[in-house]
Every structure is written in structure tokens, then in C-alpha cells.
Automatic annotation (TrEMBL):
The chain crosses the membrane at residues 459-483. This is Receptor-like serine/threonine-protein kinase. InterPro entries: Bulb-type_lectin_dom (IPR001480), Bulb-type_lectin_dom_sf (IPR036426), G-type_lectin_kinases/EP1-like (IPR051343), Kinase-like_dom_sf (IPR011009), Prot_kinase_dom (IPR000719), Protein_kinase_ATP_BS (IPR017441), Ser/Thr_kinase_AS (IPR008271), SRK-like_kinase (IPR024171). SMART domains: B_lectin, S_TKc. It comes from Capsicum annuum. It holds the Pfam family B_lectin.
Length: 806
């Protein structure tokens, strides 16, 4: 039997995968598929697989351009082209007559394509292996889906060096998630520092001395080979199906929970297995037991403050401890947060009487320890944490060891083999944190008199409300009468002039073309606009900046004017002032005050950089501008794209925020970096990548990154560094803060060195701003108070477990 198995294995390994015979069912040039009829697709010859559109998730209105098992009731998807850019209703895929495979949205805009036109493709084909190919007339493959896997590999597929699989975000969300299978000498599983596409250290890998070169999947299993073809290790075997492997569909997938699973599905009910996908192997077997190398900021299976445990189905599940709730109820592998007020370290009593310690058996959190004690009892460990306002949990080991932990908690797990016991600090059931309000129910004469006065007050209030309602009704009738009369007379002003109460001017296109000298001197350009220098033809010859928008949300005049009106009503010294606009035909232009010194990006990262005191003032100016947008405008404005390029400086180096309100003026697809995301990568808050409400706290996160750039005088991401740990500024800065190595961040800035206490304070503010949980981030008002020194900064949590998310 063993000889028979090895003989079959040898035959499979010797066959070049590209030469295994296939019966092509051609897709001719010019063929199309649309989302309007998902019953139409391009099938493989046997009908086992199909290429076309599938709904992207439960109840979703969008579509994936995908390949799936077509004979199965589940229509299991094995590949998709647009997992991070879901196609809306009305989208179309076409194998064009010039040989391009193109996905377009309802407006005809190209959203995904594979271009083989210059190679002369003759047709496309869905193969019985689950591989979609573009081929020449002689059947030479020009492009194939097998070369661009998403989260799944199939028998007949090969993973070469630097190939990767990326998990989906959840069981119903196909977008790129938190885990990666990567081949680079070793085949390894990594967590991803979501939303940045950078991996953490591996939590599982093969041990082949780095000689792994190719992963091959055939009917007998999944194997890792060296460059010379030598078999190095067996990843997963299909021999449980004995000699009937061909009677099963197979797939191997890196699932959203970080486990790489090898599945089989019987092609016929007579095989003895249930007609469903069943697991042959899971790698790793218990992901809850795995720990990252960096226990201070990384984790593997579950998010912050969460506990991992293996269910009866051998799948990891993440649960929030008592009195904690999920940040995002839809993200069951995500982070948890306290559902009660934290202990206040600023008051002398610390409020310890309002808290108790909840005992949790066979439970531990790994990492985030800030104090350790040996040879102490459980009661001493528990009481020490209860009295310490910075302690949120204490773990006691049978060896009389005690670890005190800060918020947030990392790498939690509950396992029968875990010997440790955790004491979690929570509020008492009937207690309040902070000042309490006492109510009385006695019926003394004094209280009766109080009740009488209360009743008299109620009568007075009721009468006042009645009179107020009557006055309001009369005023409303009067306004309706005025508006009725107003409609009988022609309007005095045109739409261009109708921005009442605001000193803003309407320009014709010819005026601005003349002022810019035919749009000659370009000050800057972006994805959605170009800015030109202009000199107005007035008595002062004022220099202005003219922003020419490429496209706007509505081509209609009134929609544009409404947004211009909203922006023009802002008035703050730390916002770039809108002076005028042009709304003529298809032309949409905005006229701003000219900022003589240019953008912060121009002055921050060059040799002639701003001084330390100037950079601190820029931070305060920017914070004040954001605070105005968030809290003081008549209509709250979320900027959505705070970065050095959008902070401009005048001749006095006063910082002013530009492009506020632009998110409403631009087409939705013009400020996206990925689907539904606005902003610039590196400055984008984690909640953009999750199904969470977008609030002003996204601007606070972006400000935090900007503040780090200001105090360290370097970009948020830099490749040419001596140590790869310094590439991502936010991570490096937090490492330096934790290790008390601020001198590495300050460098040779003598002024900052002399003001190192303030440098540390600003660094702490930045760390608070970039917390994963938006609720932990301060408001911009609080940021201003701390930057100006009016309020002390509390010690921030170690934030760098959050980057993994979405």
C-alpha cells in the first residue's frame, strides 16, 4: 500500500503542472457578463467551476468578480479579482476585442483589469482545475488566476517564491483581512499590521533552513519543495481519502481566523462522507496557544482585552470578559472595551471603593505587564492591583508569582491546561465612579413644602410652554406669508451672488483664466484638483490660489453652491480662507487666500526645516483649526485628510488647514485609497477599514500621526533607514517612549534636546491620539489644553497592538 501511494506521488510530482491536459471551453473576445444576471457565467468544460459575478456577502448589494465551485449548493468561492473594491449593481466584465479582461462600474469606469493586448490573446477559458486563463491561439497561457491567488489554493496550483495568501476579514466580508500565508524560504503564517500592509513575526512556519522554493498542491496533498525539486516537507496529506482522492473536491484556504485549513467535499453521496466541506488538516491546530515574539504590541488570534478559546468545532472563538463589550459587534474576532468608567488616577482617593476583582480560572493574558512580584499570595496580588489605579488585571501563578497588567490587555486565552488565575478589575454592581447623588423620600413638613413649590413651578412651566408654543405658531405663519409674497416678485440676485452674510465673490471662468495667465504657474496638484497661482485684476492686484476641481459630486449648479456656501461660512485664523468660486458650465473652481510659505510638507522634511519652537506652534495652530471644525462650526466638518500637504503656512508661519469640506465637493471615488476609505494611507484611522461609524476621531488619529512627524522631523513611513524597526514612525516612536530612549527621536535638534520634557509630553499626546479605540482618543479641545500646558498628560496605553485591524 505504501509503495502504491509513493508511486502515485512520484507520478504527480514529475508531471509539470502547466502541461496537464485540459479541455478548454473558450470564451471568445468581445464576451461580457453583467451583475444584472448572475445566472450567466463562463463555466469550465465539466461544469465543476464557473467564472462570473457572485454576491459579496450576506445581504450585500455588491458583487465579487469570482471563480467558484459551480456544482455545489454553497457555490464556494475560491478566487476573486476585486475583494477590496466590491462591484456595485450595474457593473460589467468584458474580455475585450483587443484582449483585455476588464471590470467596469455602472459609469463605465475601469476598476480592475488584466492587460495582455500586446501579447495577442485569442480567447479566455475557465479550466476544470479552477484556473481562469487568457491564452494565445496555440493555447499558450498569457495570464492565469492561479498566479494571483486570494485566500485559496486548489489541486494543480503552485505557490512560488514570494507568493502569498491573505485571509478575508470575516466569514461574510471578503476584503483582505488580518492574516497572511507567505513563502520566502520558509512557508509561514503571519499577522498583518492592519491597515498597513506590513507583517508581524510568524506565528507558524516550516523548518527547512530557508530552502523552501515552491508549494505544490495535488490530489495527494500539499508539499514544500526545494529549488531543485527535492521534496522538503509534507504540509497536508490527502491520504485520509485513501485511493479515492479523485472522488473529492479539494481546497486549502487561509481563513479569517488565521488558520490554514485543507478541506474535502465528496463529488457523490456514495463516498461515505457527508455532502459538505470537511476538514482534513488545520494549521495551526490550536491558534489560541500561540504567542507573538513581541509581547508588548502584537497578538495572534483575538483582539485587545479579548479571550481566545477553542470551541467544540475546533475553531477559535473570541469572547469579551465580564463587563467588557466588543468595539464592533460585527467583528467577533476583534477588540473589546470596558463598558464602565475607568479608575481615575487624578483624584487622591483613586476611587478604589467602587471596584472589585473578578476571579477567572484557567485564564491568562500574555504581554503588557508593568510590574512583577515573586513569592506573594493570591490575596496580596489581587489587593495590589485593586489599589493601583493603573492596574486593570492581575495574573497569579501557582508558583506564587504575580503579574500586574495595564490597559489594554493582550493575547488573552482560556484553556483547561492553563494553570494561571486572573483577577480582572471591574466596577461593583451597584456602585458609581465619582461623585454620587443622594435622593431622599421622607415626608417631613419641609419636604411637603418642597413638593408644593415643585407643583407650583410645574404649573408656571406648563403655562410658559403653552405661551411659547402660541408665539412660535404665530411667527411661523408670518414667515409663510412673507415667503408667499416673496415668490410674486423676481429675485434680486443671481445664484452666483446668493451667498448671504458672507464676503465671497463669484468669478467667471474667463476672469480666472486671465488671473492665472492661462493656468500657467502650478502651485500643486493632486488626484482631484490642481492649484494655480493667480493675480486678481483689482486695485490691489491681490495674489490668490485657484483650485481647479477635476470633478464634483453633482454636476448641478445648486449642489455645488450649497457646499461652497457651507465652507465659506467658516471663519477661523487657522483655516485657509475661501475668497470666491466659479460655477460656470462644467467648470468648478475655488479661490483661496495665497499662503506665502507653502505647505508644511515643503518645510518639515528638508534641510532648512522649521525650528523646534516653530514646529510646536504649528501643532497648536493645527489643533485649533481642527477644534473649530469639530466643535465650533454651525455645521460640524470632518476633514478626513489631515496630512502635512494640507497644512499651509503664511508669511508669519501661522499654520492654516486647507481642503476642509472638500470631502463633500469631490466624487466619492476621488478621495478613496481603498473601498469606502477617505484620506491618505499612513494617516487613515483604523475605523475606516472596519464597519464602524466615522466620527471626528478619524481626524484626531491623523493629527496624532502629523504630530509625530512634527516633533521628530521625519515622514510617517521611511524606507531608507538603518534599522527596519524605524520604518514606521508611529511604531518606532512608541518603542522609544517605552524604552525611555527619546534621544533617538530627537536626533541632533539641540533646541528640542533642551526642551526634552515638553518633547516627551507632545509624544504622549500623539500616542493618545493614535489609539485603536476611537473612544480612547482625546477631543481636539483636550489636545489643545495639553499642548499649551493647561492640563497634564496621563500615561498613555501601549497602542501598538491596534495596527493589525481593520
Amino acid at each position: 500500500m505504501a509503495f502504491h501511494y509513493m508511486f502515485l506521488l512520484t507520478i504527480f510530482l514529475l508531471l509539470p503542472l502547466s502541461t496537464i491536459a485540459q479541455s478548454y471551453k473558450n470564451v471568445s473576445l468581445g464576451s461580457t457578463l453583467t451583475t444584472s444576471d448572475v445566472t450567466k457565467f463562463w463555466p469550465s468544460p465539466s461544469g465543476d467551476f464557473a467564472f462570473g459575478f457572485q454576491r459579496s456577502g450576506n445581504g450585500s448589494s455588491g458583487f465579487l468578480l469570482a471563480i467558484w465551485f459551480n456544482k455545489l449548493k454553497e457555490k464556494t468561492i475560491v478566487w476573486s479579482a476585486n475583494r477590496n473594491n466590491i462591484a456595485p449593481e450595474g457593473s460589467k466584465v468584458e474580455l475585450s476585442v483587443d484582449g483585455r479582461l476588464v471590470l467596469t462600474d455602472p459609469n463605465g469606469q475601469e476598476t480592475w483589469a488584466r492587460d495582455t493586448a500586446n501579447a495577442g490573446p485569442a480567447y479566455g477559458a475557465m479550466l476544470d482545475t479552477g484556473n481562469f486563463v487568457l491564452a494565445t491561439s496555440s493555447s499558450g497561457i498569457l495570464w492565469q488566476s492561479f498566479d494571483e491567488p486570494t485566500d485559496t489554493i486548489l489541486p494543480g496550483q503552485v505557490l512560488n517564491q514570494r507568493s502569498r495568501l491573505v485571509s478575508s476579514f470575516s466569514s461574510t466580508n471578503a476584503s483582505s483581512g488580518r492574516f497572511e500565508l507567505f513563502l520566502d524560504g520558509e512557508l509561514a503564517l503571519h499577522t498583518i499590521k492592519y491597515p498597513i500592509d506590513v507583517t508581524n513575526s510568524a506565528y507558524w512556519s516550516t523548518v527547512t533552513g530557508g530552502s523552501g522554493n515552491q508549494v505544490r498542491f495535488n490530489q495527494l496533498g500539499i508539499y514544500l519543495h526545494a529549488a531543485n525539486g527535492t521534496l522538503l516537507t509534507l504540509i497536508s496529506s490527502s491520504n485520509e481519502t485513501n485511493s479515492t482522492a479523485s472522488q473529492f473536491y479539494q481546497r486549502a484556504i487561509l481563513e479569517y481566523d488565521g488558520v490554514f485549513r485543507h478541506y474535502v467535499y465528496p463529488k457523490r453521496s456514495s463516498s461515505g462522507r457527508p455532502m459538505a466541506w470537511s476538514t482534513l488538516h488545520s494549521i495551526p491546530d490550536n491558534i489560541c496557544l500561540l504567542l507573538p515574539q513581541n509581547l508588548q504590541r502584537e497578538w495572534v488570534a483575538c483582539g485587545l482585552n479579548s479571550l481566545c478559546s477553542m470551541g467544540t468545532d475546533r475553531r477559535p472563538r473570541c469572547d469579551c470578559p465580564i463587563k467588557y463589550i466588543f468595539n464592533d459587534p460585527k467583528d467577533k474576532l476583534g477588540s473589546c472595551r470596558r463598558n464602565f468608567p475607568e479608575q481615575d488616577c487624578k483624584v487622591e482617593s483613586r476611587g478604589a471603593e467602587a471596584f472589585t476583582m473578578h476571579e477567572m480560572l484557567s485564564t491568562n493574558w500574555f504581554g503588557g505587564d508593568f510590574e512583577y512580584y515573586a513569592d506573594v499570595t493570591e490575596d496580596w496580588c489581587k489587593q495590589s492591583c485593586l489599589n493601583d489605579c493603573y492596574c486593570v488585571a492581575a495574573v497569579h501563578h501557582p508558583g506564587k508569582e504575580c503579574w500586574k497588567k495595564r490597559y489594554p490587555l493582550l493575547n488573552g486565552r482560556t484553556d483547561p491546561e492553563e494553570a494561571s488565575k486572573t483577577f480582572l478589575k471591574i466596577t461593583k454592581d451597584n456602585s458609581t465612579v465619582g461623585p454620587t447623588t443622594t435622593t431622599t423620600t421622607n415626608t417631613t413638613p419641609r419636604s411637603q413644602a418642597g413638593e408644593k413649590r415643585k407643583n407650583q413651578s410645574s404649573v408656571i412651566i406648563s403655562v410658559s410652554v403653552l405661551l411659547g408654543s402660541l408665539v412660535f405658531t404665530l411667527m411661523l405663519l408670518a414667515l409663510l406669508y412673507v415667503f408667499k409674497l416673496k415668490g410674486r416678485y423676481p429675485k434680486k440676485f443671481s445664484a452666483y451672488q446668493a451667498v448671504p452674510g458672507v464676503n465671497i465673490r463669484s468669478f467667471s471662468y474667463n476672469e480666472l483664466e486671465e488671473a492665472t495667465n492661462g493656468f500657467e504657474e502650478e502651485l500643486g496638484t493632486g488626484a482631484f484638483s490642481t492649484v494655480y497661482k493667480a493675480i486678481l485684476n483689482d486695485e490691489n492686484g491681490k495674489i490668490v490660489a485657484v483650485k481647479k476641481l477635476h470633478k464634483t459630486v453633482t454636476e448641478g449648479e445648486q449642489g455645488f453652491l450649497a457646499e461652497v456656501n457651507s465652507i465659506s461660512r467658516t471663519n477661523h485664523k487657522n483655516l485657509v480662507q475661501l475668497l470666491g468660486f466659479c460655477n460656470e458650465g462644467q467648470h468648478r473652481l475655488l479661490v483661496y487666500e495665497h499662503m506665502e510659505a507653502g505647505s508644511l510638507a515643503d518645510l518639515l522634511f528638508k534641510d532648512s526645516r522649521l525650528s523646534w519652537s516653530q514646529r510646536v506652534q504649528v501643532a497648536i495652530d493645527t489643533a485649533k483649526g481642527l477644534c473649530y471644525l469639530h466643535e465650533e462650526c454651525s455645521n460640524q466638518i470632518i476633514h478626513c485628510d489631515i496630512k502635512p500637504q494640507n497644512v499651509l503656512l503664511d508669511e508669519n508661519l501661522t499654520a492654516k488647514i486647507a481642503d476642509f469640506g472638500m470631502a463633500k465637493l469631490l466624487r466619492k471615488d476621488q478621495t478613496r485609497t481603498t473601498t469606502k476609505i477617505r484620506g491618505t494611507r499612513g494617516y487613515v484611522a483604523p475605523e475606516w477599514f472596519r464597519n464602524m461609524p466615522i466620527t471626528v476621531k478619524v481626524d484626531v488619529y491623523s493629527f496624532g500621526i502629523l504630530l509625530l512627524e512634527l516633533i521628530c522631523c521625519r515622514k510617517s513611513y521611511k524606507q531608507d533607514v538603518a534599522n527596519e524597526n524605524e520604518m514606521i514612525l508611529a511604531e518606532w516612536a512608541c518603542d522609544c517612549y517605552r524604552r525611555k530612549e527619546l534621544h533617538l527621536l530627537v536626533g541632533d535638534d539641540e533646541e528640542a534636546i533642551e526642551d526634552i520634557e515638553r518633547f516627551e509630553k507632545l509624544l504622549m499626546v500623539a500616542i493618545w491620539c493614535i489609539q485603536e479605540n476611537p473612544a480612547l482618543r482625546p477631543s481636539m479641545k483636550e489636545v489643545i489644553l495639553t499642548l499649551e500646558g493647561s492640563v497634564e498628560v496621563s500615561i498613555p496605553p501601549d497602542p501598538f497592538s491596534f495596527i493589525r485591524f481593520v
